Amino acid sequence: MTIKVLICDDSALIRSVMTEIISSQPDMQVVGVAPDPLVARELIKQTNPDVLTLDVEMPKMDGLDFLERLMRLRPMPVVMVSSLTERGSEITLRALELGAVDFVTKPKISIQSGMRDYAELIADKIRAAAKARIQPRTLARPAGAGPAAGLPQLRNPLTSSEKLIIIGASTGGTEAIREFLTQMPSDCPGILIAQHMPEGFTTSFAKRLDSLCKISVVEARGDERVLPGHAYIAPGHSHLMLVRSGANYMTRIEQSPPVNRHRPSVDVLFRSAAQGAGKNAVGVILTGMGKDGAQGMLEMKQAGAYNFAQDEASCVVFGMPREAIAIGATHETGALTALPGMVLGHLAAHGSRALRV
């Protein structure tokens, strides 16, 4: 099957680069290029593309306004093309909330040595988008709203300090993580998260989540104690790992080579949780393309951790969870909306035990 791609960007240079990259793929075809959303709207009607790449900031109609109308009137897979700026990252996160499947940063045209890797990244994201399920949007809960009604309550605060929740995600993961974290109570266990996201976006991602959740959400800095009611997101430039220091859990970040082509890598985080927390960890693998995290989650299970996977129906891309399930790394599978309750239910049922150093 040939994936039909429509490119919408106000930069003629970016349109040319994207066209060259996409046309070089044996399974893709550029069916049109548009300098603004008004032209794109007509080309969508004419060409019926499988995937739209959409610039974040454009003239005549803002990319977000166009995306919002598109997802309401003709939902389709959209990959945003974003600039590496603070404003660009904030707009991109909003675009993901509105229904975009994923995003890529604008290519650094002057650095030709990295164009091959960049081309592979774009192609991978378009392939994933072509297979994606376009999920209905849910409104973000305000920070004061707290967890959804009916979620299991932890038996006592001690449970939070002894247990950890370890989360990995990729395509579709920003919204899945938001859905999960906004249902966490303020006394939940410390949470470590690896989401495939480039440098420059994880800071805005953490700030956005922090404004929506009852728990505190930060970008991990490394060498910080993992506290109850806190979530630590791997920075886009580094792997995030869990380590033990006496009776405490600590974060560690390092810029070692990518694993499964990713840094941060879910496998790296899960493997460190297996080694550092063992049976005190609860693993959660969410929507994403590829297999990053599957082997690390299996190691967590072998070390005594209890693991959950998002089910196929609620995933944007059922790649990473499917791989983890296939190798026997998970204990339970559930819809995204059910996973927070399932995790809290497991924690409540198993009570608290003293950490063994």
Automatic annotation (TrEMBL):
PTM annotation, UniProt: Phosphorylated by CheA. Phosphorylation of the N-terminal regulatory domain activates the methylesterase activity.
Residue ranges annotated for the Response regulatory domain, each copy included: 4-121
Function: Involved in chemotaxis. Part of a chemotaxis signal transduction system that modulates chemotaxis in response to various stimuli. Catalyzes the demethylation of specific methylglutamate residues introduced into the chemoreceptors (methyl-accepting chemotaxis proteins or MCP) by CheR. Also mediates the irreversible deamidation of specific glutamine residues to glutamic acid.
Modified residues (4-aspartylphosphate): D55
Protein family: Belongs to the CheB family.
InterPro entries noted in UniProt: CheB-like, CheB_C, CheY-like_superfamily, Sig_transdc_resp-reg_Me-estase, Sig_transdc_resp-reg_receiver
Predominant place of localization: cytoplasm
Record remark on domains: Contains a C-terminal catalytic domain, and an N-terminal region which modulates catalytic activity.
GO cellular component: cytoplasm
Catalytic machinery residues: S170, H196, D292
Keyword match Hydrolase: yes
One GO process term, biological-process aspect: chemotaxis
UniProt subcellular location: Cytoplasm
Protein's UniProt name: Protein-glutamate methylesterase/protein-glutamine glutaminase
One Pfam family named in its UniProt record: CheB_methylest
Enzyme class: hydrolase
Keywords: Chemotaxis, Cytoplasm, Hydrolase, Phosphoprotein
Domain CheB-type methylesterase: 157-350
SUPFAM superfamilies, per the entry: CheY-like, Methylesterase CheB, C-terminal domain
Source organism phylogeny: Bacteria, Pseudomonadati, Pseudomonadota, Betaproteobacteria, Burkholderiales
Stretches that traverse the bilayer: none
Gene3D superfamilies per record: 3.40.50.2300, Methylesterase CheB, C-terminal domain
